[in-house]
Amino acid sequence: MKKGRKVLLIVGGGIAAYKCLELIRRLRESGISVTAVMTNAAKEFVTPLSVSVLAGSEARSSLFELGEEAKFGHIELSRSADLIVVAPATADIMAKIAGGHADDLASTVLLATDKPVLLAPAMNVRMWEHASTRRNFATLKEDGIRFVGPVDGEMACGEFGPGRMSEPAEILAAILQFFESGPLAGVHAVVTSGTTREPIDPIRYLANRSSGRQGAAIAEALAAQGADVSFVTGPAAAETPNGVRTIQVETALEMRDAVFHALPAEVAVFAAAVADWRVRNPSASKIKKDGGTGPRLEFAENPDILAEVAQLQADRPRLVVGFAAETGDLIDNAVKKRKRKGCDWILANDVSPGTGVMGGCRNEITLISERGTETWPEMSKRDVAERLAMRIAAQFGDH
Ligand code: C5P
């Protein structure tokens, strides 16, 4: 593991909070530095003094303590660690994160962070099984939050079942696995996917046949290599990938905003089939038939998100990958496209109707880079994604 890894540990208010002392000790023994934030409820279970002494720095809990805030603001706190761990993660904390609350330091840090988050839930079995906790758990997983536990066992309240916090050794193992998992650990990747919908009026829109399968598979394959993935997707038939942060958008302009908001990143893969045009003046109300020739739509060109990111002067991702979906002169057009847009790699594919690529599950790719062209055999979109993720990982092997 690389030296100097930092964990921000948020201690929630539950009886399992006493285990956080052991967790802090083990983290520090493993060479990981720990900054602790405690909720007010956590202070009822363990003292800030014990947590501070073991962590080697003062535990924070107040959002409004001027002295603390002046030394190190909560936004900085939320971004300064490589990983945020919440242990114990109570039902209340899970609900707060799922709902986007920010009414104390812990929830504010969790809302303000752009870093990966690992939760170790701990609560009574009925609370764990309650419909609202089930809902929150599903939402948090969809948001790319990682979990360790809870496990089955006897609880302090005398009941038995799922809800017991994982032991400190297991939480440490999950943290070490996170830091060591894959060649892209610590690399932030932005992936666009799906189609975009450009409104004509509140009911109708322009879109295309992209299923979002290739983009979703790429996001998941990058996450499997350890990358921290921001997945910016327009409407898509494909399922949301696992282990990524998903940002849903509709229009090309929203996609552009979401991508720039997610930056900086080391890798950016643009798999979305972005509409080239939007309707210049979409109608605010449903357009009615008038027995004539129908409405005359005027178009405005959408920004080319790939080209804008590839041509960034400051903070350009180290690797920018685009697609060239063509119906003729595949290689020639794709080589020109790579140059014109300024990206590093282009994955060219033939989307002529006969190929079944658009909306289908298979793809035939030619990778175009500065070094020339390389044609891959026809394979599933999942295999294309894994091959691409491996190529990206090889590029970042020494990051
Ligand atoms: O120019 P063309 O649409 O063929 O370029 C395809 C590539 O550019 C894809 O990688 C696509 O995601 C990206 N693109 C974009 N924004 C646009 C149009 C295309 O990011 N407005």
Main sheet attributes: strand count, strand direction, barrel closure: 8 strands, mixed
C-alpha geometry? globular
Bound molecules: cytidine-5'-monophosphate
Oligomer: single chain
Average pLDDT, to the nearest integer? 91
Care to count the β-strands?
21
Low-confidence sequence ranges = none
How many separate helices?
Answer: 14
What is the distance, rounded to the nearest whole angstrom, between the alpha carbons of the first and last residues? 13 Å
Structural class: alpha/beta
Radius of gyration: 24 Å
Range of helix content: 25-40%
Estimate what percentage of residues fall within beta strands: 15-25%
Q: Order the strands across the largest sheet as they lie in space.
A: 12-11-8-13-16-17-19-20
Report on this model:
The strands form 6 sheets. The chain has an 8-stranded mixed β-sheet, with helices on both faces. With 399 residues, the chain is of the alpha/beta class. The protein has 14 helices and 21 strands. The longest helix is centred in the C-terminal third of the chain and has 15 residues, at 381-395. It is 34% helix and 23% strand. α1 (19-29) packs parallel to α2. The structure holds cytidine-5'-monophosphate.
